Amino acid sequence: MAFMLKDMVKKEWRLASGHRLCPGCPAPTLVKLALMATDYDVVVANATGCLEVSTTIYPYSAWKVPWIHNAFENAAATISGVEAAYKVLKRKGKIDRDIKFIAFGGDGGTYDIGIQALSGAIERGHDFLYILYDNEGYMNTGNQRSGATPTGANTTTAPIGKVSLGKLQVKKNITEIIAGHGKVYVAQASISHWQDFMNKVKRGIEYEGPAFINALSPCVRFWRVRTDQAMEVAKLGVETNYWPLYEVVDGVYKINYKPRKPKPLEEFLKIQGRFSHLFKREGGKALIEEFQNEVNRRWERLLKLEEATKQV
Amino acid sequence: MIAEKTLVAITGAMASAHAMRQINPDVVAAYPITPQTPIMMNFTQFAADGLVDTEVVTVESEHSAMSACVGAAAAGARVMTATAANGLALMHEIVYIAASTRLPIVMSIANRALSGPINIHCDHSDTMAERDSGWIQIFCENAQEVYESTILAMKWAEKENVLLPVMVNQDGFIISHAVENVELLPDDVVKEFVGEHIPHAPLLDVEHPVTYGPLDLYDYYFEHKRQQIEAMKEAEKVFPQIAAELSEITGNEYDFIESYKLDDAEYAIVTLGSSAGTVKYVVDEMRGEGKKVGLLKIRVFRPFPVKRIAEALDGKKAVAVLDRSASFGAEAPIYSEVKSALYTVKERPILQSYVYGLGGRDFTPEHARTAFERLIKGEFFEGEGYLGLRE
Ligand SMILES: Cc1ncc(C[n+]2csc(CCOP(=O)(O)OP(=O)(O)O)c2C)c(N)n1
Ligand code: SF4
Ligand SMILES: [Mg+2]
After folding, report:
1. Less Cβ crowding at N or C end of chain B, within 10 Å?
2. How far is CA B30 from CA A89, B87, B162, B177, B194, in A?
3. A124/B67 CB distance under 8 A
4. What is the pLDDT of residues B173-187, one digit of tens each?
């Protein structure tokens, strides 16, 4: 069943407006859509980061659902504890309703400092959905590089300089790392394709066991795009195959969208200020080419994985 | 009424595990580290045998252990865990968060020296590094105390207006792995003593959504810390009542401190943990020789019982304070705090600081005797002394 705007406008937002995320930031939209994608009662855990600090400045909270922030690297471990408590209290008859568990974490809190806690929680098989909003850097602390920052981006800890073109390494592929855990629902999604995202949230929540969604969520501030461009740039990520929309369910791959004629990566890069030096400086062109090759390699690999895991 | 007890020969670790079994917590999240391992192995066996209803979360690290404990306790569960040394150090960040979130978690610690260099044996550097974390800290002299303190801790932690986590410390190997006679209470008596867990504003009460762990800046953080300070004062206030309730069923005494032949003593040793047993033995020996010596054992280190210690030591001629951990570049922790507790007494004793037993070095009766004899002979020196060290 598709999510329709005409039904959605009648639903209550479970994240109130009035939070202090930047104008044009897609992270709160992602949260609202996720919480709209299910009718279950939910408890949310949130890693330290933009979303957390901007929605709960004491004595205010934008969250209309039970919510817990513990620390930066442990949203997955925290929600494991909540879920364990739920299981036992339900067994003892102290709780009678069905409750679902969602953790939100940024790329820093997930690709980097929180990867161990997330890996452990998935391996243990807790029944929860982890939603990673990937804005490709430590934005809350001022655009430092993370394992999710793409090649060539200008960040404050891998800045461009006389002898550097920004981050020189490739982006970690966390979706594949999580898929490698085996018994897990994994999906890659983008804020630009909101129906696809909501469907994945629904499937992730209904999957028995751990689920993980990596959602592209452009930071309008540090990607250096206009505040009305988050959707556009995210869409270009998908249309260039930089950010394929796909699912891996218990090891079986399914690509949800295959652009008929993928756009060149340059189109994704050139509207973002964080890559502008690549178009002006020596070596920039070569770096873009290398980056394009990496995007092609990952896409080809994905096609093969889909083929190889096809169920007969 | 004193309950009928069963005498068993068990280790300190098993004493912890039995207390946990009888408390029957909702969630236990823990990670193995020597010498805590037998606590967890015994408890998970109880769980595997269906003797508890606990959801055991076998996390991938101690950081996640404490993180899951925080999540579970905030969700509304009764929560316990156990660790030691490096595991406690790895938890450190979340140890503070557990206390400031006012979550009544009980944690057994089999005290072990902190790395580096790596060592698996007893000292108190692990727990002393957490002394300002906002946890209640209890130290045990033997397996019996481990058992009873764990039960007491659960009730103390959950007391209204307290809602603070508690560490129950037992000396690694010395207590955790040594077999002693322990008297266990009947299961139903323990169950009744700790009572039903009534969580405060649990996450799982979805009809009343709460926000745990918001960003708390200069306009409120200070007031919240002040409340935490008050909670610790409250903990100090309610302890005697809870201790009395436990005494009623065990017949044993629990106080912040234990005075052993101290009232008429002129010379005293202050210590905590298993070394107290050794000192008692030496006190008896030396009393037999006509020497007026005694022991002050600290059972509760946080909240630090300043008044009780001051009263107990006021008027003594000289006192040696023993620490099983060092504070590099400063006085050892127990010494420093006892010294400051004595600032306002009428007749301040001469004080001597000793560090002993680091990394599991044996603490023997000769060491206690040396400390006493130096006090008696008036052999005092500047700075701290070391017992059992090759200089
Ligand atoms: C243990 C620890 N290390 C560092 C920090 C500082 N810190 C807070 S948020 C953050 C970056 C968050 O980045 P990300 O997870 O990508 O979320 P974003 O702010 O980009 O949404 C950092 C480095 C911290 N709070 N805790
Ligand atoms: S800095 Fe970026 S990610 Fe953070 S709130 Fe602003 S736009 Fe959103
Ligand atoms: Mg980020």
Report:
1. C
2. 19, 10, 24, 19, 22
3. no
4. 999 999 999 999 999
